Amino acid sequence: MREAFQTKRSARIIAILTGAVIAAAAAGYLYFHNPHQYPLPCLFHIITGLYCPGCGAGRASYSILHGRFYAAFRYNPMYVTLLPFLGVYIVARLIDWVLTGGNHVDQKINQKVLYVVLIIVVGFGIVRNIPIYPFTLLVPAGY
User: Fold this and answer.
1) Most exposed residue of 3, 21, 29, 75, measured as fewest CB within 10 angstroms of its CB?
2) Is residue 81 part of a domain?
3) Between 36 and 69, residue with greater pLDDT
4) Domain total for the chain?
């Protein structure tokens, strides 16, 4: 029984290392491929003419990889603000999964926190489309 648990743990470690290599490759690709030259279109923006809560996240990621945090914040302030929290959550989940094979992290997160984050994301998507100063500051830089 103990041997089977170790095999499962090693398989989980291999899965996480594979995911880390894929994420590093994706970050490397983004580092060398400027989204201003090779834009990734937002279908929501193309169809509606409005900015979704994620508009500018690709350019913000590119800017973060190049150490330009102010520029990243100008592209999508919500994304840049929530990214560290998302990173901590993902790392905690992965550590929990490797060690226990289960998910004990989600049980510790209060449902109200998730609802507040959802309201913030939807609210940001609405407010960034109001064509009045200071809300126009939330439009991704370069539009």
Assistant:
1) 3
2) yes
3) 69
4) 1
